[in-house]
Write a structure and sequence with these properties.
It is a single chain. It is built from five helices and no strands. The protein is mainly α and about 90 residues long. The protein has one domain. Keywords: Membrane, Transmembrane, Transmembrane helix.
Length: about 90
């Protein structure tokens, strides 16, 4: 079984220069997306104030966060946020 690195090197030798640039660009874009999603999740997971900002600007992203945490077995975050935000308005 070949390692992913040797497969990549073998592919890199057989591709033309434009294909190499496109492949590298797609790879970099995917890595940026993965790390961006990780840091966004980490920030939302540790800051209730940031989640409130997200609820105002990007509610659909906050909904994905809530569903993913509930799916992983962490319940009550949504309710705690709603309770705090409701109390802060009063």
């Amino acid at each position: 079984m070949r390692s992913p690195a040797s497969t990549y090197l073998r592919m890199a030798r057989t591709m033309d220069p434009l294909a190499k640039k496109i492949f590298k660009g797609v790879l970099v874009a995917e890595l940026v997306g993965i790390f961006g999603a990780y840091f966004l999740f980490k920030k939302m997971n540790t800051s209730q104030d940031f989640r409130q900002t997200m609820s105002k600007k990007f509610p659909f992203i906050l909904e994905v966060y809530y569903k993913s945490t509930e799916h992983s077995g962490m319940y009550g975050i949504r309710e705690q946020d709603q309770e705090k935000w409701l109390n802060s308005k009063n």
